[in-house]
UniProtKB/TrEMBL annotation:
Family label: Belongs to the methyltransferase superfamily. RNA methyltransferase RsmG family.
InterPro entries with a match to the protein in the record: rRNA_ssu_MeTfrase_G (IPR003682), SAM-dependent_MTases_sf (IPR029063)
Organism: Salegentibacter mishustinae
Compartments it resides in: Cytoplasm
NCBIfam families: rsmG_gidB
Name of the protein described by the UniProt record: Ribosomal RNA small subunit methyltransferase G
EC numbers: 2.1.1.-
First-listed, main subcellular location of the protein, grouped into a coarse class: cytoplasm
Gene Ontology cellular component list: cytosol
Signal peptide residue numbers: none
UniProt key word Cytoplasm: yes
The keyword Transferase is assigned to this record: yes
Source species taxonomy: Bacteria, Pseudomonadati, Bacteroidota, Flavobacteriia, Flavobacteriales
Known function: Specifically methylates the N7 position of a guanine in 16S rRNA.
Length: 209
């Protein structure tokens, strides 16, 4: 929790209270349905919450904007981002029902009124979004294929819209066909060793192969 205050010092009491409550909710649910590994649950603020919030260091979401979290699993990065941007709308999607059950319980427990959830493959989701966020779901070519047509051409963020993907390691091969991809190193924003190889890849919509 101290980590959240260290990097996001200007949040409201309600936001800090939600981040505080989040740990207990996940710990409780993880005893029943294992959605977060044991090591990760002990370091949930570093490995899940702060990592998810890395996206916010690259892009601030506007009130009323629509964000799709593809393959949210236990709710990452969608839930921490929904706490950080309470006036932005988040749609969290995953194809595994039991993970969505936990997400639904956490959303309810935290009283997050800006989160909608759907248990489905992303290919089945219709509608368009200002940004698509994700972590650890698929290689970029597959991900781009799955999400084709789901990014609004007219964004509420003026000229910025597209995919914001949390990735790690060497991306040279994976992003070879995406010359417009912008790579942001999270070690430039967070000093913990965990972030040494972590990045946010921003793929603008107007990418033309
Ligand atoms: C490794 S987990 C990552 C979960 C979460 N994003 C995180 O970082 O903790 C990948 C998730 O993507 C989901 N997934 C994979 N392909 C999907 C698809 N086509 N549509 C929706 N969800 C998908 C899986 O069910 C799984 O929960």
């Amino acid at each position: 929790m101290e980590l959240i205050k260290k990097y996001f010092p200007d949040l409201s009491d309600d936001q800090y209270a939600k981040f505080e409550q989040l740990e207990a909710l996940y710990k409780d649910w993880n005893l029943k349905i294992n959605v977060v590994s044991r090591k990760d649950i002990d370091e949930i603020y570093l490995r899940h919450v702060l990592h998810s919030l890395g996206i916010a260091k690259i892009q601030k979401f506007k009130p009323g904007a629509e964000i799709l979290d593809v393959g949210t699993g236990g709710g990452f990065p969608g839930i921490p981002l929904a706490i950080l941007f309470p006036e932005t709308n988040f749609h969290l999607v995953d194809s595994i029902g039991k993970k969505m059950k936990v997400v639904n319980e956490v959303v309810e427990g935290l009283k997050l009124t800006n989160v909608k959830t759907t248990n489905a493959r992303v290919e089945e989701i219709s509608g368009t979004y200002d940004f698509i966020v994700s972590r650890a779901v698929a290689a970029m070519p597959t991900f781009v294929h799955w999400t084709k047509g789901k990014i609004a051409k007219k964004s509420q963020h003026e000229l910025k819209n597209g995919i914001l993907y949390l990735k790690g390691g060497d991306l040279t091969v994976e992003l070879r066909d995406y010359p417009k991809a912008e790579i942001y190193e999270l070690r430039d924003y967070f000093e913990e060793d965990f972030f040494n190889t972590k990045k946010v890849v921003y793929l603008p919509l107007k990418y033309k192969p």
